[in-house]
Description:
Elements: H1 6-48, E1 51-52, E2 60-61, H2 65-71, H3 74-92, H4 94-105, H5 111-119, H6 126-137, H7 142-149, H8 164-190, H9 194-202, H10 207-235, H11 239-244, H12 256-266, H13 270-301
Antiparallel strand pairs: 1-2
Helix pairs in contact: 1-13, 2-13, 3-4, 3-8, 3-10, 4-5, 4-8, 5-8, 6-8, 8-10, 10-13, 12-13
Pfam family, one: BPD_transp_1
GO cellular component, one term: plasma membrane
Keywords: Cell membrane, Membrane, Transmembrane, Transmembrane helix, Transport
Amino acid sequence: MASADEPVRARSRRGADRYRWSARGFVAPGVFLVAVLLYLPLLWTTFLSLTDYNGLRDPEWTGIDNYTEMFSDPQFVGSMLNTLLWVAGTLIVPVGIGLGVALLTWNLKGGTWLRLPFLIPYALSGIGVGVIWSFILGSNGALDQALAAFGIADTPRWLLDSPLNTIVMIGATAWQGVGVNALLFTIGLQSIPKEPLEAARLDGATGFRLFRSILWPMLRPLTAVVVGLSIVASLKTFDIVQGMTKGGPGQSSETLALTMYKKTFVNSDYGLGSAIAVFLTVVTLIASILYLRQQLSSKHEG
Length: 302
């Protein structure tokens, strides 16, 4: 004999099914948009990376020839090394200085106004930052003229010698990015409960000991976000390099993103440019996944 609860269960299942289909209906436009704007271009780029294509005639299938050419090209190897230098530099300089600015100003009266000058450059575009620093660091530019006024005539060729040109461009990026990193770290510091800080101070923890024992462990979740964003952004560095050196002299300061751009849109070698794009995408995904897994495993162990 059928249970009296069966109609209730049936209605409950029908309600749950309607809820699931309604939820899928709300999600479907977003999924479609992501597929059209992200996944389909990625699949098309992957296909082009396996062809010989100049943007005019039909793509001609060549297999992995573009990847073989890419890894055997000294220019590509130099771009990859420059990109790694960008990753290291942007982790050390803008993130490190941003943390220092946040620590020095977060507990000060008027600290917001002290952080504001660091935050203003973030409103500029990368090309704009490149133009400003090209004026400062170019041959006989503002910096050279300022040094000459102090009797220093033999100045370095800031944008002409490698790897000095990459190093000063990392400095320009730091000038733009320190403010937003300081803002993010300040938000993290302000969210720390006062009780552990007061207890640590009563135990005599001040200065570096307070930072190491209390502040840094509590900032770790936010630090993971800041460092992850910095890694991804540095792997895709393009605009500042294009604005300051255009990858020169020669190709001495090119990054992978700039090499991809030149191969594709300057040399009209869409197949090789697509191969570099796929390689850069894979490297970015692997770096992001490995970093997030390491952070999550550290969190669970803690």
